[in-house]
Design brief:
Elements (H helix, E strand, L loop, with lengths): L3 H4 E3 L4 E4 L10 E4 L2 H9 L6 H18 L3 H9 L6 H12 L3 H23 L6 E5 L5 H4 L5 H10 L3 E7 L6 H13 L3 E4 L4 H6 L5 E4 L3 E3 L4 E4 L2 H10 L4 E4 L5 E2 L29 E4 L6 E4 L2 E3 L3 H4 L8
Parallel strand pairs: 4-5, 4-7, 5-6, 7-10, 8-11, 10-13
Antiparallel strand pairs: 1-2, 2-3, 8-9, 9-12, 13-14
Bound molecules: 5-S-methyl-1-O-phosphono-5-thio-D-ribulose.
5-S-methyl-1-O-phosphono-5-thio-D-ribulose (MRU) binds next to α3, α7 and β9.
Amino acid sequence: MLAPERILRLEDDRVVFLDQRRLPLEEIEVECRTAAEVADAIRTMVVRGAPAIGIAAAYGYALAAVRGEDMDAAEHVLRTSRPTAVNLGWALDEMRRDPSPAHARAIHDAEVARCRAMSAHAASLLAPNTRALTHCNAGGLATGGYGSAVGAILSAWEAGLVEHVWVDETRPLLQGARLTAWELETAGVPHAVIADSAAASLMASGEVDAVLTGADRIAANGDTANKIGTYSLAVLAAHHDIPFYVVAPSSTVDHSTTSGAGIPIEERDPAEVTPRFAARNPAFDVTPAALIRAIVTEHGAHTPPYADSLVGAVVSV
Ligand code: MRU
């Protein structure tokens, strides 16, 4: 498993990221020396995944404070770097209270601790010999260490509960085929990458026992935004009576947004889908709460009705 500081870290005068765009072919670091450079790393997906984006913003804010940057400008450029992951705004709200490097590093440490706790809770929901399916990358790379949905799979694997993992390749940027497969290979977990469109027939042939994904923002009613394609998996899972679990820290729960309709969905460059023809590239979709068997945070498994069960899903510092 990658050490948290290998994924991202704050040094005296820079924030250093493992460049997730280059993985798994090359392990190259990117150094950012201003808040604007950190924002650019978030926007261009050098660093990605909701909790990791939040940690990156915290480090960028701390760096700006150390450098004596205009803090309003630093906050603005970081806050607007990507719209969907609520962890970004959450981390900046935290950093406004205390912009010190120590606070930013404490946010990173706490996020990894939440991952370990939620992963243990989620693993306990899985039956022996589970063949899990996951989408995008919700591993350590996405959370700054250990992971959420992939953390749950790792935890369940260590408990002897996982037989095999199906990894959606996750068009168009292939976070599954590049990052999740790399993490599972490193951990020695049996897995196979599938085309996103293969999930339906694998479910129909009885080869999927549970679907686990992360989240970028969970509304107060349990509607959940995650990587584009998550909603179709949830519909498929419901049709085949397969449990669909969302695993995410409480920093991903947005209590101020009442339903999925209020979640901003990022539209990215159409050239990521095809460089040649007209295209549309929504980066996330919203899975209605009714399709989610449980939302697992560091506090445990929250079950419907989520408007009640998510009330306690708040970050305790
Ligand atoms: O566009 P990305 O790669 O940042 O999207 C990431 C996801 O959708 C993840 O599933 C989500 O952030 C959860 S990460 C624990």
